[in-house]
Amino acid sequence: MKILKGILILLILSACGPVKNATKLDLKKMEREGFSFRIENNWASPMGDQVLNQLSMNLPDGSSSNAINLIGNPNHFEIIGDSLSVKLPYFGVRQMGGGYNRDGGITVKEKFSDLTISNIKKNSKFIKLNAKSTEGENFQFNVQVFENGTTTIYVNGSQRSAITYRGEITEWDIKSEQDKTLKKS
């Protein structure tokens, strides 16, 4: 009976071990052959500010002034070839402009510039690029991509305080609309 209990305990403990993610990105291949991917973020972490602390009562459930839950809030960061498409909600202080009736988020649909890819650790890549928003604001995006598909995006804008997004790659090797059209014909 003691042996049976011991075996049962071992089975239970081994079932509680860490689960490895089945999808492991080939980061070396990504760097060699180019990449296209889409990131959807679950969390935003604005730079701490007194104004944001005062508004924290208006944030979604489960959020605080330095960790805002984005689940259910449509957003994306997408690289296809040499183009960047970004639609991210923004929480923080904007130093200049903005105008009336404008979307307060970060919106980019342009070709990016100054792309650099570097290794930080064995299991991650650091992608750095610059782009201009549809309203003319300059952004620097620093994207850390891990082998398990999780990501961290650090965003610095020329007119706003910095913000960080945490999410995961939801699509890999996306084809541009032009590529899709060529395949149909």
UniProtKB/TrEMBL annotation:
Domain of life: Bacteria
UniProt keyword list: Signal
Signal peptide segment: 1-21
Signal as UniProt keyword: yes
Protein name: DUF4251 domain-containing protein
InterPro entries assigned to the protein according to its UniProt record, in alphabetical order: DUF4251
Matching Gene3D superfamilies: 2.40.128.410
